[in-house]
Amino acid sequence: MRVGVPKEIKKNEHRIGLTPTAVREYVAHGHTVSIETGAGLGAGFTDADYKKAGAKIVADAKTIFADNDMIVKVKEPQKVEWEMLREDQILFTYLHLAPDPEQTKGLIASKCAAIAYETVTNAQGGLPLLAPMSEVAGRIAVFSAAETLLKHNGGMGLLFCGVPGVAPARVLVLGGGVVGLNSARMAMGLGAEVVVLERSIPRMAYIDEVTNGRVITRYSSIGAIEEEMVKADVIIGAVLVPGAEAPKLIKREHLKQMKPGSVLVDVAIDQGGCFETSHATTHEDPTYVIDNVVHYCVANMPGAAPRTSSEALNNATLPFGLALADKGLEALKQNPHLARGLNVLKGEITYPAVAEALDMPWSDPFGVWAKG
Which residue among 100, 233, 266, 270 is the active-site one? Predict the structure, then answer.
């Protein structure tokens, strides 16, 4: 198969869909890999690195999209990109379609096969292609919160870790999944007081075990959120409903009850955000203030560490990408976990949570295949 990797064009995005190590594996499987010139520079990979791995270097994205059977990216395609997609072409990347009707309609119009990293599953019920970026984002969320708490960044002027005789920050983490656990462990390691709200009792037991009881866990409810938010200096939103829009757990009216200068970090912003007042920001301009509460809602937090993020992402995506390159869409029929990644096929939505979020119809993918 001909596999193409364009340069990411979303603002402040420096990750790349395939590392040189991954390219070498694709080439070893007999595939042709084309990389847009300079695509890896933001993550520290030169064109020479890709040539050494066996890739062809291509001058522009237009050629990448025109000449290849499968496009491998990191972030969701921008308008200029989805307009270059074509029928029967495979797109393998993060999509986050639930809060993005414009992109969804663009992918439908292209009639490509759009496979989302974030909805691929595994035998344990996890999301293996989302997990590595969730680990990175959960950790970066804590660093970002600590920096934002400082007075010159709009925060209350609190030192995250405290000093002898002065209490550290109190951090409330909404959700105990991969993001939440990584945030909790990182905040705990920096000396903060940490509370995690979670609804899975086994997950709370696991968090208690791996943190040796140093993280407080509470069953998540409306009452628990309202009790904890007024005590928190930082709230990290780490909730996820696979493929669907994130629930809004902190409402606009709640902000007036929170501490002035406190910080909200919305890691769920790619799925629409879990705070009612969230809107996507960038690394260049990451924060805004509403009702004296600082909001940090960068939509690609792992993009701040593109080298680490690209390598971690490729470690997870490589076997699935190789399966697609080796077998085409037949790989989805043979692997139900990879099939869960299929969000759009032949002009139809094939992932029910996306359709529900956008109030659009969806079709069973096997029925779409049967239409030919």
Answer: 270
Q: Is 270 a catalytic residue?
A: yes
Catalytic position from the list 14, 96, 295, 337: 96
pLDDT digits (tens, 9 = 90+) for 207-225: 999 999 999 999 999 999 9
Residues 300 and 14 sit within 8 Å (Cβ to Cβ): no
Q: Where are the alpha helices (DSSP H) in the chain?
A: 20-28, 47-53, 61-67, 79-82, 101-110, 131-148, 178-189, 201-210, 222-229, 306-327, 330-334, 336-339, 352-358, 365-370
pTM: 0.91
Contact (Cβ atoms closer than 8 angstroms) between residue 23 and residue 53: yes
- What residues have CB less than 8 Å from 219, skipping those under 6 apart? 197, 198, 199, 201, 204
- How confident is the model over 222-240, as pLDDT tens digits? 999 999 999 999 999 999 8
Residue 96 annotated to the active site:
yes
**Cα(195)–Cα(197) distance, integer angstroms:** 7
